[in-house]
Amino acid sequence: GTVKGTELHDAKTAIGGTTARNVDLKEVTGQDFLRTATIMLIGIAIVLIVITRSLLNTIFIIGSLLLAYFASLGISEQISAHVLHVESLSWNVPFFSFIMIVALGVDYSI
Question: What distance in Å separates the CA atoms of residue 98 and residue 44, rounded to the nearest whole number?
Fold first, then answer.
């Protein structure tokens, strides 16, 4: 870095502020999202297999939930970009959208 060759060559450098905090928050929530989504889908699949007694129906329901999630996320992105003129969705929109769509969608899919 820029401190190499100076008296501060052993010093630790860090970046702070709102932008750095938001980047860190996005990275952490991205990891949490994958973990949460995996646990939710596995748990829902197990319950659906028990309730429907059909692996094919379970795959169809999980697939339709994922399709609904990605479609709604794409539509939300398009609306925010072209109607609201916002560069991207907030970090929490995909996370909470997944939870709400899957939780409500699985009830109506059965």
Answer: 13
42-84 pLDDT, tens digit each:
999 999 999 999 999 999 999 999 999 999 999 999 999 999 9
Question: Does residue 13 belong to any structural domain of this protein?
Answer: no
State residue 2's pLDDT score. 64
| Contact predicate 97/76, CB 8 Å | yes
**Domains of the chain: total:** 1
Kindly report the number of other CB atoms within 10 A of residue 44's CB atom: 19
Domain span holding position 52: 18-109
Question: Is 105 within 8 Å of 64 (Cβ atoms)?
Answer: yes
